[in-house]
Design brief:
- It is a single chain.
- The protein is an all-alpha fold.
- It contains 22 helices and no strands.
- It has one domain: MFS general substrate transporter like domains (Growth Hormone, Chain: A, Up-down Bundle), CATH 1.20.1250.
- Helices cover 78% and strands 0% of the residues.
- α14 packs antiparallel against α21.
């Protein structure tokens, strides 16, 4: 279902808060304060990403403590997404109604509880519960960032804001090397306690600094606006969800996002570290630093992809090229023998850089929706994207176990071969190809949004 120009223009005006013209304006869009609020939201996204990828450096310790194999590690890691993924739809609606600030603060409480619970777990079941709590708390992170971006910045900036937001998340993912160092010093349980304390600090930052929109920020300064600002609501909790689900284009974009998230969720977050350790005979810290190349590349690629998209005036062309480029780079990573470690890091960086163009899926879906449903639209898409981890993290673990010859190390941890990993990673290659095919059927949204600006 296409949204008409008149409807979106009406929507953008309906969201504004009527106020006395004599009321002073303290806070404006795209001001210094807007940037500070945006940075606070991004810090939460960065933090939740640190929690998301932490199992990548805990894999060996979890196997030792719980006497488990790769399949179970994949289940523990993906438990984060059991809560994260289904909560995307309600989170989008909740953020649109309650505002990002309150949602972020409540989410941080859940993340902190998840860290503490996970750090004290004594079984697979309790560690899964800790990961579920982290996933619940993290579910609204990117959605809240997108909502803040839509409220505090003009629509022509949204592609860049979305790209920078993804960059901040990948910075969090790249800090897995720091988590590895914390594990070396404090052991894995102590490291998780420290991450929980970090969440407490971000909670107080959001409490003291953030505001949902310029209207609400100004209303706190001017009591004459306060009641009308609080009284603004959407027509219905389900209106945005109905619009999102009734547009077939949003479903196609969601499928694309699901398969294109694999460089992060399947490789950099989990199976890349043990694969590189085996391939080069290196320790977890060095291997995780190599996986950081994917995060850094994708973060920069998200910003670059947004810029190129605006420059060539197309969303779909950039997303299609991102799928093909990522496919080519990871084919080298998985199947070209004899690469030096330095070359591997370069190829991983390029794979991440090229995959960064995928994040335009958030921009495309947002441009298919009225402004007041921005968070709902992005939540709808993010549900597809995050389902990638639920499907592929355990799937790759299962494929490893399926081809495993039963050999274990002296510590009782299963020993997988390079060939085992190649078989498992073949599922990733097929997914990238699917992503490119899907983009052939997606209509471009750039022209529409530029004409409506």
């Amino acid at each position: 279902m296409d949204i008409s120009k008149a409807e979106i223009m009406h929507d953008s005006h309906s969201f504004s808060i009527e106020k006395d013209e004599s009321s002073p304006i303290y806070y404006k869009k795209e001001s210094l304060y807007a940037c500070i609020v945006m940075l606070c939201a991004w810090s939460f996204y960065l933090y939740e990403y640190i929690l998301r990828v932490s199992p990548g450096v805990l894999e060996k310790f979890l196997m030792q403590d719980y006497a488990i194999t790769a399949t179970t590690v994949g289940v523990i890691s993906s438990a984060y997404y059991w809560a994260y993924t289904p909560l995307q739809l309600p989170c989008g609606v909740i953020v649109d109604h309650l505002g990002a600030r309150r949602v972020i603060m409540f989410s941080l409480i859940l993340c902190v509880l998840g860290c503490f619970f996970f750090s004290q777990s004594d079984s697979v079941a309790t560690s899964i519960m800790g990961r579920v709590l982290m996933g619940m708390g993290s579910a609204c992170a990117y959605i809240s960032c997108a909502k803040i971006g839509a409220e505090w910045f003009n629509s022509d900036r949204f592609a860049l804001i979305a790209g920078i937001g993804m960059f901040m998340g990948t910075v969090g993912g790249s800090l897995n090397a720091v988590t590895s160092m914390l594990v070396d010093v404090f052991e894995w349980r102590g490291a998780m306690m420290i991450l929980g304390a970090l969440g407490v600090g971000i909670f107080f930052l959001a409490l003291m600094v953030m505001s949902d929109s310029p209207e609400l920020a100004n209303a706190k300064k001017d009591s004459r606006q306060l009641q009308s600002t609080k009284g603004h609501t959407q027509d219905s909790l389900l209106d945005g969800l109905k619009i999102a689900t009734s547009n077939p284009q949003n479903w196609l974009i969601g499928i694309y996002g699901c398969v294109m998230y694999l460089p992060l969720c399947a490789f950099a977050e989990l199976w890349g570290v043990p694969y590189l350790k085996l391939l080069y005979g290196i320790d977890s810290t060095i291997a995780s630093s190599a996986c950081v190349s994917v995060f850094i590349g994708m973060g920069l690629g998200s910003i670059l992809g947004a810029w190129i998209s605006n420059k060539i005036q197309s969303r779909t062309r950039v997303m299609g090229l991102a799928a093909l480029g990522t496919l080519a780079c990871f084919a080298v990573v998985f199947y070209v023998p004899g690469l030096s470690f330095t070359t591997m890091r370069v190829v991983l960086f390029l794979g991440g850089l090229l995959s960064g163009g995928q994040t335009l899926y958030f921009v495309s879906v947002k441009e298919n929706m009225p402004l007041r449903y921005a968070a709902t639209a992005i939540g709808f898409t993010n549900a597809f994207v995050m389902s990638s981890a639920i499907l592929f993290q355990p799937l790759l673990g299962y494929l490893l176990d399926l081809t495993w010859d039963g050999v274990k190390g002296i510590d009782g941890v299963p020993v997988y071969s390079i060939e085992n990993y190649k078989v498992a990673f073949s599922a990733v290659m097929v997914a990238f190809l699917v992503g490119w095919i899907v983009m052939l059927f997606v209509r471009d949204t750039y022209k529409k949004v530029s004409n409506e600006a």
